[in-house]
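User: Hi! Is it possible to get a structure for several chains at once, not just one? Here's what I have:
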Amino acid sequence: MNNPNKKKFSDKVINRLTLYHCILTDYMLRNIEFISSPQIAALLKIDDSQVRKDISLLNNVGKCRVGYIARDLKENIEKTLGFEKPKDAFIIGAGNLGSALAKYDNFANYGLNVLALFDNSSLKVDTKINDKQVFHISKLPDLAEKLSVEIAIMTVPREFAQITADFLVKSNIKYIWNFTPTVLFVPNNIQVWNENLMGNFLQFTYQK
Amino acid sequence: MNNPNKKKFSDKVINRLTLYHCILTDYMLRNIEFISSPQIAALLKIDDSQVRKDISLLNNVGKCRVGYIARDLKENIEKTLGFEKPKDAFIIGAGNLGSALAKYDNFANYGLNVLALFDNSSLKVDTKINDKQVFHISKLPDLAEKLSVEIAIMTVPREFAQITADFLVKSNIKYIWNFTPTVLFVPNNIQVWNENLMGNFLQFTYQK
DNA sequence: AATTAATTGTGATATTTTTCCCTATTATAC
DNA sequence: GTATAATAGGGAAAAATATCACAATTAATT
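Assistant: Yes, the chains can be modeled jointly so their relative placement is included. Here is the combined structure:
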């Protein structure tokens, strides 16, 4: 009955939980002890019962008339979503976006460690970006194996997207976070997340 | 019956349509004339009837046994989602991410024109990034009014996120694309899209 | 010309997600 | 102490979304 391969939470729930986490981080900085579902709901402009349902999935209990203990809830989300089991990743493509993501130290707070970058330009190879070395792309298979890295953040120009994806798959990368405006063709055992920036933009500007 | 303020398409549909558009762009580059719903579905690992349902919303008709005319379908998506009516935007925060987005020329293909950047650092003010001028943030209200800009892409450090949002709202900005890991408190008439990068990352790495 | 197989379009069904609504609880005000 | 109002928790209903199933069409094959 309890299929261990089944995801525990839907994508929507995970997405909302990380937004609750952002709010809770802010509450911590402001030293506020309690948070209520209507407060969270108002900030995100969603229904308060939705917030309670999500939180109840974490087996987190609140106090009537008071709300939830902000610190506990924050830690509970971190534990549930695995922030404290860091995952290592490579950035493929040390251009503008790749560099920006390499400098985005917030990733580490959410359990994502960028170990290195890869590029094919000799201008970039052997430089450092935010203390992370840029290697030639040919070094990737070796380093991925040695460091057991399964996650690649792909920020190459669109014309190299598919060929790069093929190379990553051959190098035993299992997760590709695709920042190129391309849909990749990969085997079924590879997880791809299309960071569909324009789709997101249209979602919030279209007819509102 | 036909409420003109009602959105025609759900967020999910818009998101998928932009992914279909990515695929179609690739088909154009490869000079492939026809595309079928099972082909699209296989790339995105979704159901083919889902693809047909989405496409039928565009009043696009396909040919049995052949599929859809790739160029027509692409143009239909562009027309429907308004790629050809460009929208002007400002980038707020000329740091790494802001600069990367200013250099991301793909936005223009999707109807988003970045006119200028704003920052409060004198080191950045009056420089140019990809031919776009960086202005001091104090110039924003004037320029937003003169140029009728309603969209702001926010890439400031998290500690300045809320104060910046307040300032944008006062400056009559109506749409905030929020790249900071913060949930903003804004009036109900302001649209915010939280580009929740870590949420997206967790969605595709969590228990898969 | 007949057959086969691939594809669209769509109604029906199933599933997922969200919202509604009510009860129990409890801090605060009176 | 009692009343009030805000909140959590959770079952039920509603809404949204995705999948299934199949008839109709048609290009390709025989």
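Residues 10, 12-13, 46-47, 49-50, 53, 63-66 of chain A lie near DNA strand C (CB under 10 Å from a C1'). The longest strand of chain A covers residues 112-119.

User: Great, thank you!
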